Amino acid sequence: MTAETQVTEKRTALYDQHAALGASFTDFGGWQMPLKYGSELAEHRAVRETAGLFDLSHMGEVWVTGPNAGAFLDYALVGKLSAVAVGKAKYSLICAEDGGIIDDLIVYRVAEDEYLVVPNAGNAPIVAAEFEARLAAFGAVSNAGGVTLRDASAETSLIAVQGPNAQSIVLALVPAEQAEAVTELKYYAAVGVEAAGIPVLLARTGYTGEDGFELFVPNERAAELWAAIRGAGEGHELVPCGLASRDSLRLEAGMPLYGNELSREVTPFEAGFGGVVALTSKEGDFVGRAALQAKKDDGAGTTSGKRLVGLRGLGRRAGRSHYPVLKDGQQVGEVTSGQPSPTLGYPVALAYVAVEHSAVGTKLDVDLRGKAEPFEVVALPFYKRQK
After folding, report:
1. 179 and 312: one domain?
2. Do 311 and 238 belong together in one domain?
3. Are residues 235 and 311 in the same domain?
4. The Aminomethyltransferase C-terminal domain covers which part of the protein (predicted)?
């Protein structure tokens, strides 16, 4: 390791815990993160069958507060965040003026005038800077003040418990009087509780396709909480999991990854997230509105251009990122993510293909280093848990 690497790499507050567990590390968005602890296949299966424990502290946390916080987020993001009920969360996108996706994120409305925005790791500084610039523009166009931004990314840790046993593990950590708050918590909702005596924001969200929770905690209590969760999980077959299994889990669940499925070169309509864009449900301008309206009017992702689809392999070999997608020997698209599905037993992939070849049931090929391998367009997600 060079001196430059030592200076520039970022480590979460749980780095030492991962090292003690024998984690293999990888760089992700400038962070040294656990790739896996042993078998990534075993970690994947644990989340599907019992429970997995993830450190997601590389994600960003930006607090938006004040009487006009909701109106500001309506201007800064493509969704109508002012309509989100207190205690609920909403998936949204931050787009550039030309409609390209800067990041996808989750917004939690923690109180009437308080929102928590969670951007992706590598994009967190970009989103924070965009918010600052958009706040200035928002004030200029609306003559509205009363909005405060606070980037708490550097001081906040995020720990996830995912899988069928996740609720039982969290219940073992909270006091009896808060048990109902956990069991009644709906998907895409959050509540403040004490876990192992530590105040946390508990969200029923995740990136695996399973039931699960994400716990926001100050860095200085992260190691304590991690140890408490591991202790509570001993009787529930809880397994620490790295980014490798997180990637295979999210792919099975058909969830996009920024830098693969989402980028500045892609609009929400092409990515299949046109429903996230509130072109008709909110009044007033928002960043990218004109471009996105034009894209919708042009039929982007629906009648013209490209569209993100799911591909099921009909053979045994998997497509990988950037592999060409073919129709009758001619390239009509490109794989963005792909690998064998541990749960389903066949290869799966996400890919952008020409709209005319995007219908479910369409037979396509993926060029696997010179050999055409058969795939079929299927509905997403590939895997859906039994509730």
Report:
1. no
2. no
3. no
4. 306-384
